Amino acid sequence: KVSFLALTVVLPFLSPNEDQDLLLAAAYVSDAQYNRNVPFETSPQAIRLYHFYNHWTMRAATYFFIWVDLSLALFEEPAVFPLPFLVTSIAEVLCLTAFFGRLVHFAKVTPQKVFWKDTKNICVMVTIVLTLIDLVIYASLEAVNIRGVRWSRALRPVFLINFPESRQIRRAFRSIRNTLPDVLYVFLLFLFSMMIFSLMALKLFGDRGLRTVEGSPYFTNVLDIAFELYVLVTTANSPDVMMPAYELNWWYSLYFITYIIINTYLFMSVFLAVVYNNYRKHLKNEIHTLAYLKRHKMTEAFNILKVKVGIEFVVKEARWRQLVKVVAPDISSSHLELLLRISDEGQTGHVDKMNFLRLADLLNIRVVAINIKRHPLETWMPRVYQSSTSLLVQKMVQHRQVRWSRIFVWVYDVIILINTIFIALDEKDSLISYAEWLFLSLYIIEILLKLYTYEPRAYFGRNQFWNWFDTVIIIAALLATVANTTIQARKYNSQQILDIVLILRILRLLRVIVSIQRFRVIVTTLINIGPTMLTFGGLVLVVYYAFAIIGMEAFHGKVHFLDPSSGSPDALVCGNPALKDSAFARGRYCKNNFNDLASSLILLTELTVVNHFALLADGFALVTHQAAKLYFIGFHVVVVILIVNIFIAFILEAFFVAYSLEKSEVETAIEKKIQELGVGVQEEEVQDGGLIDHMDTKDSGFSADDGDNRKKALKGLYFRIASKKYKTVDTLLQQMFESEIAPEGKDPSLEEILNFSPKKPNFDNSA
Questions:
Q1: How do residues 362-387 score in pLDDT, each as one tens digit?
Q2: Which of 201, 299, 365, 667 could in theory staple to 663 by disulfide, Cβ–Cβ 3.0 to 4.6 A?
Q3: 123 class by beta-carbon count within 10 Å (0-12 exposed, 13-18 middle, 19+ buried)
Q4: 259 pLDDT exceeds 90?
């Protein structure tokens, strides 16, 4: 993002040509920083429009209208919260107007040939037109009391996918599209195997007069057999599907065992292997393209600002400062100076090309400036706070490497373990009730000891997640215990309040995560890859939304939930006589329907879990047509077989990178410079809030034993890498394949980058 406030501060001091050059270079650097691949016009007006296009307010407005458009399904028939058609249609037209305005803005900053060749823009325009046509048709039918079908609602996720802001979701879709050809061959072979087994089952069991538990014929129709065997791959109908044949002769069990080994274990494993291999290959090619495009944009920015000094081209320090202030207007002066010292190692007054090309990566690394302050107690009562007893307490709380240093940790680990046992016991016992107060008091003492040892503002710093986590859990436990005591004293009976109290008490056990280091590492790793997981959350949302809309149009009103206590006979058949004596009705699955968006999404979640997949599909087939089973099979193939396997492949790759805790080359360069300047604080040392007492003494002539003497004189600004978190998803992806990216100077041409295909080995050769 580029702030217009920064532009108004920097640009008035520049000539018109310098103004335009700085804006153009800033656009290239900003695109490189956020991995945007948008060809834009380089005229002064187009550059300013492009900066405005990428401003955070414009992106936020776009996302707002996208989510409003998607949420309209909650208010349209069949609705969770019904609103008149006029209200929802006006809201949708407003959203379409915003989308069209965003598209026009994009057209103003990109070359016309590029704009009209971009499939994303065509998709958005076609979807807008189709939605307007559908609105007009539906409104006309409503005017004459004819129920229409809002088929365009299934196209709403197109806006989420195709606007430039959603490049992560588009990348996931591209990876799926590129993976499909190889997966298709495995899937066809799987279908061939399933049909062979279906024909074998028809010949083996079709003429034996067998019946299922419900009394229907057993394996007499090849299509029904194929469906049952497909469900068997998911194990949702095992061993029920086998029992009639097994009861006839136990030898027939070998048929089903063979089928499960071949199709469930062999083919499904091959699916995962093929998806993982191909997805990783195509993802690597995508990241290679991103890395080379980033380098290309940074080279363009360098060429705009470069001047010749001696025999080489460089960017002057003053020009570099102006550029950084435009690209990152919120950067502090101390952070800016640190980046300059990294980029201009020799303090020559200019930045060479190699260091300039790293600027986008430098801006993506979060560097925290820490203002070292003394503990208030050290100022108010220094003699007491610096006494031998006080220092011993501080060292034990800080886990310093002195005698009995781990006693503090061990004692509270044992307390947590004993507390776990007491929570599982009957709380009505008075001894258990008093023990709750004892444990709570011990936990509060722990927090107070930490606040005594660590400077409070540092302990509750913005990046001290685990300290906040621990404190919130203790406060929640205190509230739960007080509420529980009050409820028991007044004999108040509210199940909802009691449920909340019990949950808050049990949450206290989450302190185990804080106390065990390896647990913290795993949880921290999961948090670090959280943004990348959200990419697939968006992908799943798109698929779920489309299937939910289709399901509502196809199955709305076919199944109804009626309270069984009402005595209505329709309650036993889910409001549809076609379900009489069916397993769907007997299992009381009436709430699993497509009568509104919320119910549809819950049902699709159940289908993703796969359990009772066949029962749900059979129920909707009974109230409509047997062809309805294709809807459920299609959902299983797309979500469970394809997307879930790709999700597993990506999480495996990302988790390995994040869990290894390896730093990138740029992070290493920043940390090296921080240590050379003697202003470093290690992340491990501040993990427990020790911003004051745990100072990095490497390369400074101080040993660890000198820490207590040195901290009295420490004051001022220190730096550290914020964490192993990644500012953008692209940064994590780039680190996943960092070792395979060609070094600077060996890049393919821009044309080769843009026309790159996984079938062409350009990048592999150059790498």
A1: 887 776 666 656 788 888 888 888 88
A2: 667
A3: middle
A4: yes
CA angle 252, 228, 539 (to 5 degrees): 135
> What value does the mean pLDDT of the chain take?
78
Residue 333 exposed, middle or buried by CB count within 10 Å (0-12, 13-18, 19+): exposed
Local confidence band at 694 (pLDDT 50, 70, 90 cut-offs): very low
Place of tokens 């503002």: 457
Indicate the SS3 state at residue 483. Answer: helix
Distance, CA of 561 to CA of 757 (rounded, Å): 52
- What is the DSSP annotation of 215-245? S-BSS-SHHHHHHHHHHHHTTTTTTGGGHHH
Contacts of 362 (CB under 8 A, 6+ apart): 339, 342, 343, 666, 670
Q: Quick one: three-class SS letters along 746-763? A: CCCCHHHHHCCCCCCCHH
- Using the 8-state DSSP alphabet, how is residue 744 labeled? T
- Burial track 594-627 (b if 16+ CB lie within 10 A, e otherwise): bbbbebbbebbeebbeeebbbbbbbbbbbbeeee
Neighbours of 9 (CB within 10 A): 14
Phi and psi angles of residue 74, each rounded to the nearest 5 degrees, phi first = -75, -20
- The stretch 348-370 carries a mean pLDDT of 81
Q: How many CA atoms lie within 13 A of 590 on its CB side?
A: 19
**Among 41-55, 295-309, 343-357, 716-730, where is mean pLDDT lowest?**
716-730
Beta-carbon contacts of 431 under 8 Å, excluding residues fewer than 6 positions away, are none
> What residue has token string 């061959």?
185
Residue matched to tokens 């009505």:
428
Task: Please tell me the predicted confidence (pLDDT) of residue 658.
Answer: 61
Which tokens hold the place of 400? 């310093």
What are the tokens at 744?
């600077």
Q: Which residues of 444-465 are buried (b: 16+ CB within 10 A; e: fewer)?
A: eebeeebbebbbeebbebeebe
Token pair for residue 177? 């599209």
Residue 679 has pLDDT above 80, yes or no: no
| Helical (H) or strand (E) element with 721 | strand 716-721
CA 513 to chain centre: 22
Segment 50-92, tens digit of pLDDT: 888 888 899 899 999 999 999 999 999 888 889 999 999 999 9
Give the CA count within 13 Å in the CB-facing half-sphere of 400. 20
Question: With contact defined as beta carbons under 8 Å apart, do 97 and 68 qualify?
Answer: no
Instruction: Kindly report the pTM of this predicted structure.
Output: 0.74
680 contacts 721 by C-beta, under 8 angstroms: no
The neighbouring-strand residues paired with 369 are 719
Identify the sign of the CA torsion 385, 389, 391, 394.
negative
- Pick the more confident residue, 169 or 152: 152
What are 732's two structure tokens?
A: 């994590």
* Residue 4: band (very low, low, confident or very high) from pLDDT cuts 50, 70, 90: very low
DSSP state for residue 217 in the 8-state scheme: B
Contact by Cβ (8 Å): 193, 266? no
pLDDT tens, position by position, 388-432: 888 888 887 876 544 555 677 778 778 877 877 777 776 666 777
H or E element in which residue 599 lies: helix 597-609
Give the pLDDT of residue 293: 86
Q: Which residue has the higher pLDDT, 440 or 577?
A: 577
Instruction: Tell me the β-bridge partners of 315.
Output: 351
**Residues β-bridged to residue 314:** 307, 352
217: preceding bond cis by omega (within 30 degrees)? no
Cβ contact 362:666 at 8 Å: yes
Give pLDDT, residue 535: 74
- List strands edge to edge, sheet with 350-352: 307-309, 312-316, 350-352
Token pair recorded at residue 394: 């501080």
pLDDT band for position 754 (50/70/90)? low
